[in-house]
Amino acid sequence: MVLCPFCGAEEIDGADVCQQCQQPLDDLTDPQPSTDLERFLVRDKVYMLEPRKPVTVAAHTPVANVLRTLYDRRLGCVMVLEDEELVGIFSERDALLRLNTDYAALRHRPIAEFMTPSPETVESDASIAFALHKMDVGGYRHLPVTADGKLVGLISIRDIFRYITDRLPGVQQPPAAAGQGP
Known about the structure:
The structure is a single chain. This protein has 182 residues and is α/β, with parallel strands linked by helices. The protein has a domain at 45-168: CBS-domain (Roll), CATH 3.10.580.10. It has 6 helices and 9 strands, in the order ββαβαββααββαββα. The longest helix is centred in the last third of the chain and has 11 residues, at 128-138.
């Protein structure tokens, strides 16, 4: 058995493509991790980021209700479900680009008309490097996390940023919050 360098899945020796992530395995002479941080990113799994429970809405939920949820709960996105299956994601970016100044005319329309359909997901046991790669290639700030095909969490680029800065030598921890000092 050989481990896929992209997602960490076990593959049969000689396999041309990883069955988990579909990355080519025919050229395993790709550069190997050379720093501790690179090794951590390849070794550590998405579940170690402690994905938060996603806020979900039904596909028929009116745009106005979803925007209120994003605002009130200070969220960057919500997961859109239909019959308990993930069918889309609606983010701040979607709101700005797809609703724009037509909000008054669109506020009662279902969120399904404005969401990003069939969002990319990442399995909770995939490597953090694989999740970061998906986010980079797709230009995503948020990535739904699944386990056995079911939605179980959500990670953001901020979660990965925190993970990386926690492991960089010499990065100072932020000072105590105002009002908690001497």
